[in-house]
Each structure stands twice: as structure tokens, then as C-alpha cells.
Amino acid sequence: ALDFGIQEALEKLGVKEINEGTSTGSENFASGETISSYSPVDGALIGTVIGTSEADYEKAIATAGEAFKTWRQIPAPQRGEIVRQFGEKLRELKEPLGKLVSYEMGKSYQEGLGEVQEMIDICDFAVGLSRQLHGLTMHSERPLHRMYEQYHPLGIVGIISAFNFPVAVWSWNTALAWVCGDVCVWKPSEKTPICGIACQNIIAEVLRENYLPEGISCLINGDYRVGEFMTKDKRIPLISATGSIRMGKIVAQAVAARLGKSLLELGGNNAIIVTPDADIKMTVIGAVFGAVGTAGQRCTSTRRLIIHEKIYEQVKEALVSAYGQLRIGNPLDQNNHVGPLIDKDAVELYQKALEKAEQEGGKVLVQGGVLDGPGYESGCYVKPAIVEADNSFEIVQEETFAPILYLLKYSGEVTNAIATQNNVVQGLSSAIMTNNLREAEQFLSAAGSDCGIANVNIGTSGAEIGGAFGGEKETGGGRESGSDAWKIYMRRQTNTINYSTELPLAQGIKFDL
Ligand code: UN1
Question: Which residues form the Aldehyde dehydrogenase domain (predicted)?
């Protein structure tokens, strides 16, 4: 019962009914546990992926290690050319891939297309970067000496990604890692394995067309046990992991135990501060998109609004009326604003969070609930809810991956709102709505927001790829995509060259023989 052109999209993306879930490029193999992917949109089976066994994993890593020996010797701008071709293929396949993202993950088709656009954008960024992997030159303290630094490829980069951005987060990592000269092994979320198959098919074709060896892009599939093959593996110098704080702590410890590097992009508890000088119309649009977009399943989703008492009632009323306009339903139908949650476990967490918020004294302003009846057969559709709460509630301190928005009130100076906004363990994204320059600058100052992302008159989600993406505290500290985030995918080497006929020692040390 597939409609909205899903069957056609799957064909264009080379997805089969049963897919081998381990791939080194053109070679696909499988002998692990089977994962079936059901759509949260209509509950239908999309396809099956046979997971990665330990033997499959060994084969993939050995192939990746061999490929690295070739790939690291190819000049970076030529590696950039491969990423350029990958970006071209993504442009051609934007619609089917966006559709698959929407169907397997449940986000709206527009957001699915937006996610593929992020992939295209990071490819363009990486192509330019391939000629700009710059190091510095230094002045040596010794005569006729030269010092400089260069960046070399690291080796195999292990990528563990989450269901909510099933394709873009992989490409943020791979597009940069590939121009940096690394090879990549990717374990997509076991909730969105078909997106993984589709992406691997696309890059495999580019690599094949360029007669490049197997192993530059590898795919593995499975749950945390397959992830563990990578986190414990000394042959993988960098693990980039996106997901919950709980998962991140386990990954970080396993990687640190072998002194590997990890790049962590974990939970957020993102707030928008709304000051008396805010533009209310912009605030409402930003807050509603931030809270209900992707059904509240972005790490950048708006979870808290910290509103000044002077405008509290006005903002509250505007929000409640905006929520009344929301259409919930099939995300491939462009008339709908809000699609389903990823699965029934997520629905249960959403329900428990709402119960807990009420138990802790929260007042429900917009009632939540699970939808049933025609169009909602998958059991994954829920109503976006708004709860008046206090920042000290345990449930407000947690990231619930669902469309629940907490309204918090502040009085007095903006510094009070900033203190509330910072008073959570997470530190990903934050925003202030104000036309008051002093408030905006205080929010952005060293004493302001403690998050990796701090916006003025923009919501908390929807970051552009040109900036470094990630956050502080229990968000994990990692930075992906733009700015100089590429540096983590390379090893820095400091080189000192003596072109004199003497061997003077640094720090003026005398050592006469
Ligand atoms: C995520 O939720 O894991 O800033 C990534 C945003 C998107 C990326 C979110 N560009 O909302």
C-alpha cells in the first residue's frame, strides 16, 4: 500500500526488498542479524537489511585500511573532485532521497528535502575546503631553520549516527573526512537502515565511476553491539557519534580507554529567551517551528521558552492559537505540518514525560495525546503539547525527543533568563528574541549563553552547515560541519627544518662533544 511515489523512489535509490547491510562500496555482504524497517508514516515494511556480523566487520575494516593507503596519496583537490561528483548525484536524487527520509524517519517531505540540501551544501563546502587544508608557518628561534605545520589524514573514521537526521549527519562527517584523506565506516541508526543503504549506493556509484578501490566508504548495520566493534577498535583513530547523552557516555569511555579521539554530538535542551523587546510574530513562528518541526525530534528542537512576565500572557495566547492551526498527519502530504514520532517506544516516552510534567506541578496549556483512526494506523502520531512548568522540574531538565514545549516565566533583567537557560546539563543550542542591543550582546557575551550555538532573532534549530555545529557540557563538546571542524579529521604535524651547517639546540642548550 505504498503511495506518494515511495516505490519509485526506492527503485531510483537501488533499494531492494532484502539488502546486504555490510558494504565496502560495490561489494556487499551480510551474515548478521536481520533488521526490518517499518515506516512510522503508515506502519508498512519498507525493506529488510541483513546486519553486520563480527566476521563481516573484520572484512570491512581490513578493506578500509587497505583503501586508506591509496586514498591518502591522492591529492586533496582530487579527493574534492570525488566529493563534487557525489554532490552532483545528490542533486539528481534529491527528491527520491528526501522522500525516503520522510517515509522512513517521519519528518515532513519539505524537511526531508532540506536534509538532502544540507548534504549538497556540505559537499560544496568540502570541495572548496579541499584546497584550504591550511597549516601555519612559524619563525624558528634558530638561524637558518624553518618551522611549519601540516595536516595529514588520520585513517579510518567511524561514524555512528542517529535516526533523526538519517542522511545529513553522515555526510557532514564523510564529506570533510574524505577531502581530508580519511576513509569512513558508517553505522546508521538501526531505526533508519534503509536510508543508509540508499546513501551507500549513491557514493558507491561515484567511487566505481572513478575506478577507486573498495573501502573508501563502508557501511555496517546493527544495534549498539555493532557500534561496539568500532568503539573498541584501535584501528579507528576517530569515532564520531551522534545520539543520546547516555549513548555518548558509553562511547566516550570505550574510545578513551584506548586513547582514541571522539567527536560527540549529544542531547540538547534548547531554550528561546523572549524579552519584552521581542518581535512577537517572529517569536511565535520561530518557537512553533523549533518545537514541532521534525515532531520535536531534532537535537536542536526548542524545548523551553523563557518568557518575560510583561509579555508572558500575550506570547502564551499567540502560541496556543498557533498550535490550534497545526495539521498532524502523513508527512508526505504537504498540507500537514507535523508527522509521526519514530516508533511506539518514542510515543511511550512522550506520554510518560507529559504525565511526569503534570505530577511535578506543570499546567497543561495545549493538551497532548496519541492519535488514532484513519491515517494514524501506525500508532506513532501524537499531538504537540505545551506545558507551563518550572526549570527545576526533573522532566524539564531532560531531553524528551517529542513535541513538548515548556513555558517558563522570568522577571527582572535578562541575566535572570540567561541563568535559567544555562541551568541544565545540556549545552547545544540557544536563542534570544529581542530588539534590544544590550540584551542581545549580554546573551552573546562570555557571561551569556553557555551553548555551542547562540542565535539572535532566530529559533534554536535549522543551523546552516557553514558554522561549526555542536555543543558544550553533556552535549559532548564535538563540532561538525563548517568553520574549522575539519581539523579533527586530520593529525597535525609540526616540522622543523635545518638548512644550516650547524646543529644549534633549542632553548640555547649547549652540548659540546
Ligand atoms: C540534529 O538534530 O542532529 O540545526 C541535527 C539543525 C539541523 C541539524 C540538526 N541543521 O536543526
Answer: 32-494
313 CA to middle of ligand 1, Å? 30
Helix axes 168-179, 76-92, angle to 10 degrees: 150
| Lookup: cell for 244 | 543520546
Atom index in ligand 1 nearest the CA of residue 297 equals: 2
Within its chain, how far is the Cα of 256 from the centroid?
A: 21
Phi, psi of 449 (to 5 degrees): -60, 140
- Pairing relation of β-strands 468-469 and 480-481? antiparallel
Instruction: Return the closest-CA partner of residue 430 out of 409, 407, 451.
Output: 451
Q: Does ligand 1 come within 6 angstroms of the Cβ of 463?
A: yes
| Residues in the chain with pLDDT values less than 50 | 1-2
Q: Are 268 and 475 in contact (CB under 8 A)?
A: yes
Ligand 1 centroid to 299 CA: how many Å? Answer: 6
CB 46 within 8 A of CB 16: no
Residue of 116, 122, 189, 298 to mutate, ligand 1, most atoms within 8 A of C-beta: 298
| Cα 469 from Cα 464, distance rounded (Å) | 9
Distance from Cα 465 to the centre of ligand 1, integer Å = 9
Looking at 348-434, which runs of residues are DSSP E strands?
363-366, 385-388, 404-410, 426-427, 429-433
Q: Which three cell numbers stand for residue 190?
A: 538501526
Q: Where are the alpha helices (DSSP H) in 155-192?
A: 168-179
Are 184 and 157 a contacting pair, CB within 8 Å?
Answer: yes
**Whether residue 379 has its Cβ less than 6 Å from ligand 1:** no
Distances (CA, A) of 13 to 83, 221, 330: 18, 18, 22
Which member of 115, 265, 399, 474 is catalytic? 265
Residue type, 263: L
**Residue 66: active-site member:** no
Residue 104 identity: E
Q: What is the ipTM of this complex?
A: 0.96
Predicted pLDDT of residue 1: 43
Q: How far is the CA of 482 from the centre of ligand 1 (A)?
A: 13
